[in-house]
Amino acid sequence: MFGLGLLFYVTILLLNAVAILNEERFLARLIGDESPSFGGHNPETIGTRLLTLIRAIRTVMRPILVVFNIVIIFYELVLG
């Protein structure tokens, strides 16, 4: 029941959740009252580092997640 397949599913679901975050609604609250462009803030705060990580995941992983999601959907449809 527990194994690498379940770990893979959980990882993909968490990356999907990060990839669909709305920058203006959610991510602006993450670092406080700064502007939605996130310019001119201190790069040493935890919120700013987390925001940079989230933006990197959204930029780099989005095309890869599309492929992984299609593979998972076909796998689930065929092997259920």
Automatic annotation (TrEMBL):
Signal peptide start and end residues: 1-19
Membrane-spanning parts: 60-79
InterPro entries: Yos1 (IPR013880)
Keywords, alphabetical: Membrane, Protein transport, Signal, Transmembrane, Transmembrane helix, Transport
Cellular component GO terms held in the UniProt record: COPII-coated ER to Golgi transport vesicle; endoplasmic reticulum membrane; Golgi membrane
Cross-referenced Pfam families: Yos1
Record's keyword annotation contains DNA damage: no
Subcellular localization, as worded in the UniProt entry: Membrane
Entry's Gene Ontology BP terms: endoplasmic reticulum to Golgi vesicle-mediated transport; protein transport
Main location: membrane
Source superkingdom: Eukaryota
Similarity section: Belongs to the YOS1 family.
Protein name, entry field: Protein transport protein yos1
UniProt source species: Wickerhamiella sorbophila
